[in-house]
Amino acid sequence: MTASHLPSSESRVHLDSTAHLMNSISSQLVGRLRLVSPLGHRRAAPPALVLVGHGSRDPRALETVRALRDRVRELRPGLPVHLGHIELNAPLLPDTLAALGDTPAVLVPLLLSRGYHVKRDIPEMAAAAKSSTRVAAPLGPHPLLVETLHDRLTEAGWPTAMDAATRRASAVVLAAAGSRDPDSATDTRRTARHLADRLGVPVVPAYASAATPTVPTAVRALAARGRHRVAIASYFMAPGRFATQCAEAAPWLASAPLGAHPAMARLILHRYDEVRVMREPELASA
């Protein structure tokens, strides 16, 4: 191109402005197309995610749940994420659902196994809500829980490598809250088996209440088998009375509760997505 055919600076500014405008229009179109199914039907906005905490008198528990909520929001910007409690802390779940009005919601229990709250309390609260509301599965068992447990143990001092003699002397007690529901114990045992596979040492589930064995009983049983280096893996969502009592029974080391670990936030979104994908055809409208 000759000098006489080169665009002037004024023309280049005009071209740049035009390109910027076209890019802006394209971005808006892409955003709108994401709301349209391949068949041309407009998709409704995704349902809100409601984290369902148990509730605790320990203020650290509420702080932990709020931190976990914030981490979920960071992972999925634009998704409405709310919090409701079964008891003891505000907002209570019925109040959260009432505030949502007609907005569809997926409830994700911040509970680690099946039990009365998962089977009765939460579904009954969901059924009383004005909006279309679904309840996701509890968080456990799942590999992301094992990832979190492993990281918490490592943070507490669990060695990343062991010789044969140390491994033969080591074990873990998976300390959980406990429940009279046999399904809860089944879920906790599955988590214990997966953690044992990850660590290469025995992992024995034990409980703070409502089930056996207790944590001290499990520690003594392991010692009788020659396992004197016993760690307590805290299978609790947040700090509290039970978590503290179990940690005090550790003859070697005790991990922190699961808390706002990044894997926990990913697990919450996974449980949400399991329900959202199932209900997506219902939410589409012509």
Give the structure's gist in a few sentences.
The chain has 286 residues and is an alpha/beta fold. The protein contains ten helices and eight strands.
List keywords for this structure.
286 residues, disordered C terminus, elongated, single chain, four-stranded parallel beta sheet, alpha/beta
User: What order do the SSEs take from the amino end to the carboxyl end, as H and E?
Assistant: HEHEHEHEHHEHEHEHEH
Termini Cα gap: 53 Å
Return the average pLDDT rounded to an integer: 87
Number of strands: 8
Structural class, by secondary structure, is alpha/beta
List the uncertain runs: 1-37, 281-286
> How large is the count of helical segments?
10
In what range is the share of β-strand residues? 5-15%
Helix content: 40-55%
**Biggest β-sheet, characterized?**
4 strands, parallel
Cross-sheet strand order for the largest sheet: 2-1-3-4
Compute the CA-based radius of gyration: 25 Å
Rough outline: elongated
Write the layout of secondary structure elements.
Blueprint: H1 9-33, E1 48-53, H2 59-75, E2 81-85, H3 93-100, E3 105-109, H4 116-127, E4 133-135, H5 143-156, H6 164-169, E5 170-176, H7 182-199, E6 203-207, H8 215-224, E7 229-234, H9 241-248, E8 253-254, H10 262-283
Parallel strand pairs: 1-2, 1-3, 3-4, 5-6, 5-7, 7-8
Helix pairs in contact: 2-10, 5-7, 5-10
